[in-house]
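Troubleshooting: if your tokenizer reports a length mismatch, compare your output against this known-good record of 387 residues.
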Amino acid sequence: MEMRIRSAVLLLFISSSLSLIAKAEVGGSVFFVDSSNHQYLRHRSPDDASEFKSLSPSEVGAAVSVLLGLAPPVALSATGSSKLNEVLMPNPFDRPRAAFVLEVTGVEDLLPLFKSNLFTNAFTDKVISGSDKAEIQLPEEEALLVSLDESSTSDFASLSDDEIGKFASWMGGSYVTDMSESLKGELTFPLGNGEKMSLHMSKEADRKYVASLMSLVNGVRRAIDMHEDFARGTRRPSELIEGCFDGIRVLKEEHGTEGVAEQGLLVLLATLSKAYNLLQEAYKGQIVGVILLGNTASSQSDSLLDVTFTSRPSVRWLAEPTGLANATEAGVVLVRQTLAWVTGIILLISTLLGVRFTIFQLCYQVLFIARKHPYFCGGLFNILLSA
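Known-good structure output:
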């Protein structure tokens, strides 16, 4: 009996361990999108994805750091470095220094991305989720961070029917307002397969999805405006545009995994395609897209992205002690005064020597004329005396 209990406990322990391992291995995908006119990534076919090793979130963060022109994390292993070599071009002096990084929750399968043909210069990798995150450390005063989650349009109440109508028109769709109440109309998006997706603003899930789409687009436009301002300067910082899109997860929770959620993914892809084209045009091709997909990130703490700023040592930390600084300053003043006196004396001596040389030359000329023309000099002397 005791043996059976031990076996049952052991079996339960093994099952729990396998379950934990399975959970650790379950993850999403990462979608790399290269520049439209420059190759920063190693191109590969979607069919070759199984031949490459899976990436961890930390390795994805290291890849983004390198694309920004920054050094990869010191903790990156040799295996992680070899994985980056499979993703990035080997030229370290040719980096875009700008990246568009978006985490999309509620999506794991990237097959619709390839079927849509919206991104022809892209490839996918599997991401094994774990306890680590995609950490990106940006140096202060040398990097620009634009968050796509800071737009006021994340709050649907701040929108207007006119803004929704303009967004629908930009997407090639339409928005029919409700004459009896604002923000209760019907928004229609065309899909690539000839069908249409209809969203009713009276439904909370549909409102959140539309607000997320508009927040994404407005964030991209805000990033373009900031890029144009910094482009006028003499030094271009590294630019990271990052955010999280929860619209698909919201649709799945409300409508299920099929139907509306699948249509919402197609609309998201079309929105990303148009927004990425705006970025490519504004950055002149010097930007790369990285899209993370997974079912996590129900809150900010669960997000795979972890962007922080690293500060340089303060000037006060590098300052000398007060007594030593005063002594150094006094020494500098003494040296300057000494150099000033020495320079003045040298100039005075040079002036006296010059005057002496001039007088000597004049006397020599007078004596020379007196010897050559004694009568002239004598007559001249008598004239001076009589005068």
